Amino acid sequence: MTTTPYGVQTAARTAAVAARATDLTKVYGQGETQVVALDHVSVEFRQAEFTAIMGPSGSGKSTLMHCVAGLDTVSSGSARIGETELTSLKDKQLTRLRRDKVGFIFQAFNLLPTLNALENITLPMDIAGRKPDRQWLDQVIETVGLSGRLKHRPTELSGGQQQRVAVARAVAGKPEIIFADEPTGNLDSRSGAEILGFLRNSVRALGQTIVMVTHDPVAAAYADRVIFLADGRIVDELREPTADSVLDRMLRISGGTTAAPVSAATSRTR
Questions:
Q1: What is the C-alpha to C-alpha distance for residues 253 and 56, in angstroms, rounded to an integer?
Q2: What residue numbers bound the domain in which 19 lies?
Q3: Cβ–Cβ under 8 Å, residues 45 and 21
Q4: Mean local confidence (pLDDT), 196-210
Q5: pLDDT tier at 262 (50, 70, 90 boundaries)?
Q6: Which residue blocks in the chain are alpha helix, DSSP H?
Q7: Which of 94, 98, 240, 244 could lock onto 89 through a cystine, CB 3.0 to 4.6 A?
Q8: pLDDT bucket at 65, cuts 50 / 70 / 90
Q9: What proportion of the chain, given as a percentage, has pLDDT over 70?
């Protein structure tokens, strides 16, 4: 049993790990312009779990996600997806790993305007030369509510529908882990709730693993667990979050409460 800087008691939890960072540091620039975006961060993201990453602007939350997802290099330390060490991979190997094992959802929908919804969903699999599991694909499409819009191009879809396409694209290939960076940032509250509800259900019913960066306490409340960053360090963790408990924790962190960094790698709130 351990206690976080804000008095949250935690206990060790054993589970398979989908991704992890160990003593990870990311530095941008040199000399007087040097910025330490991540400062010796260690954290694990367990399989079949929904984790939200939160923190004030500039805290390093997006940098952490990008490094663990293999979208950015690390300055020192380790980043792994499953048992694969990302820092040891060459560019082509890293590209293949991201294509085969990782799903991505971004605030910008990143859809190709010349392709219809179905073609956008299956594009990563088409590039990889893999045929989609038709039963699974149909289930994903039905779940995100796109059955009647598959022939429509992005310009013929609303913002919420475009993000549903992006979510379906991330899930359809059955990746080992999905990274989502502010996935509801461009959506109204109703569309955002529908997307978050689907992500939540994909974890509970389908065993998906999701890591989401967000600034929104309501969005974070859909997660199983929230980790909080400040100044490039993990300063707290919260399990079974509610919007109010997340907001309270964010206010303490943003208000300048002094906190020693903690490892979120093997802790669980009771």
A1: 8
A2: 2-254
A3: no
A4: 88
A5: very low
A6: 61-68, 91-101, 117-128, 134-143, 159-172, 189-206, 217-220, 243-254
A7: 94
A8: very high
A9: 89
What is the average pLDDT value for the chain, to the nearest integer? 87
Residue 220 lies in a domain: yes
Mean pLDDT on 82-86: 94
Calculate mean pLDDT across residues 155-165.
92
267 belongs to a structural domain:
no
3-state secondary structure of 86: helix
Measured CA to CA, the distance from residue 189 to residue 210 in angstroms comes to 20
Tally of helices (H runs) and strands (E runs) in the chain: 8, 12
225-230/50-54 β-pairing: parallel
Indicate which CATH number applies to the domain containing 194. Answer: 3.40.50.300
Distance between CA atoms of residues 212 and 235, nearest Å = 17
- pLDDT, one tens digit per residue, over 97-144 is 998 899 999 888 889 999 999 999 999 899 888 888 899 899 889 888
Q: How far apart are CA 155 and CA 158, in angstroms?
A: 8
Q: How many Cα neighbours within 13 Å face the side chain of 226?
A: 26
What is the total count of domains within the chain?
1
Residue 261 inside a domain? The answer is no
Handedness of CA 175, 180, 185, 186 (dihedral sign): negative
Contact yes or no for 236/262 (Cβ under 8 A): yes
Entry pTM = 0.85
Cα 39 to chain centroid distance, Å, stands at 20
Cα 222 → chain centroid: 13
Helix (H, G, I), strand (E, B) or coil at 140: helix
Domain assignment present for residue 260? The answer is no
